[in-house]
């Protein structure tokens, strides 16, 4: 395949790295709102891969991943193009909050966007038309929302073979299968023939180096699978659990208000009947025990230690017998690395 320029409303010729700030909106003062973007266009032809971070402005692990990806790869080494959108939601990022400020607009519920619409849809339209639509596949990096953390995992519509290939090649142990919201970047891009996955990793408002390192390994594995890095190997984990049924996952919620203390130990594996957490009143005269309804992994967990009735406590996903044996072997050998709260 012959190399081609990457075109947005300018172009990046083969063999060039371009760092740019692209205007997608304006502030109240009429100053430009610019997203930082890196385009690495290889000397050899191949697929174009987009990667996005901070569609929710306080989700920072992906921002660090983008910084490292943008500095790691050289046009001489890649076959195709890597497009890194370092911070998609600049207004939210500057305010260090999830949504676009003032009107609390969710940029990841605004794709593909359109001219003449609200602020979020106009921004989404610029991002999508200029930097997503020209690509062949994509990875969208997220963390959990504030006051929670999440286990490192992929979200993808595994019923679509082209998406399943991408999800598996990323090398995460856990894949939650299903469609995303209709106006999310993942759904819109996939429906437009650009297979896209979401990577969820850790918590907001911080860098978590162990998760960033794993994500960089996942990126390299994807680039190897699609021939962007033809000399590298695809990384396959020791075990993979695909959750594609609502009966295989559940959010456990508080039935009483009080102080929450997690009880499940150093690794997020619990067996049926194990105590996951307790909720006690301030006088320690009442304690509610919350137990695991099935054996599984604590994929997401509350970090705010107070709860009211209905508040989510943890997201539990089941494991089958073969996966359980492999996880227990890894724990025994000291190889199990999942620490969503680190």
UniProtKB/TrEMBL annotation:
Keywords: Hydrolase, Metal-binding, Zinc. The keyword Transcription does not apply. Residues 46-225 form the Succinylglutamate desuccinylase/Aspartoacylase catalytic domain. SUPFAM superfamilies: Zn-dependent exopeptidases (SSF53187). The keyword Metal-binding applies. Its cofactor is Zn(2+). GO terms for molecular function: hydrolase activity, acting on carbon-nitrogen (but not peptide) bonds, in linear amides; hydrolase activity, acting on ester bonds; metal ion binding. Gene3D superfamilies: Zn peptidases (3.40.630.10). This is Deacylase. It comes from Haloferax marisrubri.
